Amino acid sequence: MAINKELKLVIFDWDGTVMDSVMKIVDSMQCAAEREGLNVPSEQAVKDIIGLSLAPALKQLFGELTQRQVDDMAQFYKEAYLALDKNPSPLFNGIVDVFESLRERNIKIAVATGKSRVGLDRLIEQTGLGHFFCDTMTADEAESKPHPQMIDEIVNRQGVDKSQIVMVGDSVLDLTMANNAGVRSVGVSYGAHDKARLLTAKPLAVVDEANELLSYI
C-alpha cells in the first residue's frame, strides 16, 4: 500500500539501487585482492560488503590486514574501478521515472551511499542526476552502514520528521540502517541481495523493478 500522503523525503542507496554497478564493484575488489596476493573473495561475499566503508569491508572480506595492505587494497581497488568505469555503468530501467514522479509531487530525494564523496560526485556529474537531489551522504562523511548516522544527518539538515521518510536500497545493510534510524524502508531485489534476504530486515515491501517503487512511495 502506498504511503505517499505523508511522504516528504525518499533516501536512495546508489550502487545496486540507482546504478547497475554491483558487478563492477565485485570485479574491482576481486582484481585488487589478486594483486595484493590475498584470497580472492566470491561474488556474493563482495556483494555482502557493498555499502560498507573501506575498513570494515576489507575486514569482513579478508580479516585483519596491516595498514600497508589496507592502503594497497584501496589503491588497487580504485585503479581497477576507474579502468572498468571507462564504460559507465547504466542506470536501472525506470529509476529516472521514479525521480521525476517524486519531484512532481514535491517529495525530496536524497542519497546515502557507501561510495566516497569523490566517487559519488563523479557519478552524479556523469549521469546528470544532480538536480534531483536535495542532499547526499557518503561513506567517508559518516559511520559505515548499518549505523544510522547517514540518515540522521540528512534528516537533521532537511528538517523532516522520520515518520515522513522512506529508505530505498538493495542490501540488508541499507534496510538495517533504516531500522536503526527508525525510518521505514523498501527493498529492491535487482541489486546485491535477493528478495528473501531483504525480507529478513522487514521492509515495507521488496520490488523487482524500479518502476514498481511507485506503488509504495
What is the terminal separation in angstroms?
9 Å
> What structural category characterises the helix and strand content?
alpha/beta
User: How many strands, what sense, and barrel or not for the largest sheet?
Assistant: 6 strands, parallel
- Fourth CATH level, the homologous superfamily of the largest domain: HAD superfamily/HAD-like
Give the CATH class of the largest domain. Answer: Alpha Beta
Uncertain runs: none
Strand fraction equals: 5-15%
Count of β-strands: 6
State Rg.
17 Å
**How many domains comprise the coordinates?**
2
CATH domain fold name of the largest domain: Rossmann fold
Helix content: 40-55%
Tally of individual helices? 9
- State the strand order across the main sheet: 3-2-1-4-5-6
Describe the structure.
The protein is of the alpha/beta class and 217 residues long. It folds into 2 domains: 9-20 and 90-215, Rossmann fold (3-Layer(aba) Sandwich), CATH 3.40.50.1000; 22-84, DNA polymerase, domain 1 (Orthogonal Bundle), CATH 1.10.150. The chain is built from 9 helices and 6 strands, in the order βαααααβαβαβαβαβ. Strands 3-2-1-4-5-6 form a 6-stranded parallel beta sheet. Strand 2, helix 6 (117-127) and strand 3 form a beta-alpha-beta unit. The chain is globular.
What layout of secondary structure does this protein have?
Blueprint: E1 9-12, H1 22-36, H2 43-47, H3 54-62, H4 67-84, H5 95-104, E2 108-112, H6 117-127, E3 135-137, H7 149-158, E4 165-169, H8 172-181, E5 184-188, H9 195-199, E6 205-207
Parallel strand pairs: 1-2, 1-4, 2-3, 4-5, 5-6
Helix pairs in contact: 1-4
